[in-house]
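Q: What does the assembly look like in three dimensions?
Context provided by user:
Components: two
Sequences:
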Amino acid sequence: MTTGSRTSAHTRRPAGPTVRRVLGILGLLLAAIGYEAVTRAVFSPLHVPPLTAIAPRAAELLTEARFWTATGRTLLVAAVGLLIALVAGIVVGFAVGSVPWLLRAASSTLDFLRPVPSIVLIPVLVLVLDVAQITVLLVAVSCFWIVLFQVLYGLRDVDQVAVDTARTIRLGRLGRIVHVTWPSVLPYLGTALRLIVSVALALAITGGLVMGAAGLGELIWSSQESGEFTGMYALVLLTGGVGIALDMAARLAERRLLHWHVATRREVAAR
Amino acid sequence: MKATVVAGLNRGARGVGLALGLPVLLFTAWWVFSADSTSIFLPPLSRIVEAFGQVWFSEVFVRDVLPSLRRLAAGYAAALLVGVGVGYLVGRWSVVRDLTSPILAYFRVLPAPVLIPVLLVAVGIGDATKLIVIAVGAVWPILLNTADGVRAVDEVQLDTAAAYRLRAWTRHGLILRAATPQVFAGARQALGISLIVMVVSEMLMSTDGLGFTVIRFQRTFAIPEMWSGVLLLGLLGFGLAKVFETIERRALRWHRGATGREESW
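A: Here is the predicted structure of the complete assembly.
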């Protein structure tokens, strides 16, 4: 018998923001101390360096130009792929989703193609494109599916009453798309945006790891190959930081994009 | 969500026609247009199909496909076990949640493939490394979704369970059951990730496995064989997603009934 379930109604009352922040920092400290202790006790410092060795190296990397060049390249590849995916996903999604017979004819094919991991294309594409182009394509393909399906879900969610109302006030096809369909799809696109940002980063880095496309992935792999392990751990640590920054940017963009939406307004009001 | 797309289409012969029409059309088009292809990179589809039979229905299946599948299954199972277990703790007790939230936020955005070189250095090349990489890559969506699901369990249900003085174990079971829709959502995401991590880890550090074999074919310019490997990987991704959907639909039958939601196009 645990105390937690006995007093469940009380323990599940959320703590204040300050308490939560303090607990979060405490958790980070505990994890850092735990990692430090385990690495010093169990592993060789060469293969699994302690945090006290990784952190200074990471700080050092932040002052080096090659880290920023690599980060810039990775972000550029991710951004280009992401943009292609967004445009293609929205166009194809609207084209397929607003024509019922087309959607029915295409859905089995879409269902088949979606779970195919985009990295299976690497061996094929390596023969015809250069590695940077392939990485952009990998990002674009993976993100495309997410955008496409979110648009299709969004189109399914359009309120029929709103569509009928728009018809009654004689809004044209374009007017209906701008004033009714698009705003209904937008929240789904917001979700897609949050999802694809981390997918884009992951694939941009995978391209560097597997094919040596210039960027963070390539930098990580080459430090591993040259035996500069502390540098590699530091790079991985910083990669997570890049991920957090991207995630925050995506959330901000989503909130800007959907400032009018009920869920956002409620979120802001709750603050 | 797309679980019922195909099922919905299968109603009636017209449905079957619609479901099969486009794939058959595309396949035929590929077959016809590649028939007299002389490009070494784009061999005729007939050659690829032929290579498919020769390559994969042989000892290669035992030597390369089975080890891949074994690693995938073991890594994924470990991710499920740890993800649901820890996710339950995180979702159930707010102190645990507050303590772990920055760490979880970090690992949620850290791309899984960067763990491959890390584990390569820390653990070395071997089956264990690939297994751990798959598990570590796949665990986060399961963990976070389970935590969300456990946290969102209906208060009334919990209070009712308390009022009936159900035993602690029964109550934990109840909460976990109520969270299964989210657990499945996370598990589905994790399945895709684990497949990707499996292939990438085999491309980077392996002496056997599907990813390794495909890369080897490409490096030795055995192009039809390479295409057949790409095809097999695609089929594997599709097949796993279908198996998952079947299990999910069975496991969540009560949920669709309870919410009155039948998702279809």
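Follow-up: Chain A touches chain B through 72 residues (CB under 8 Å).
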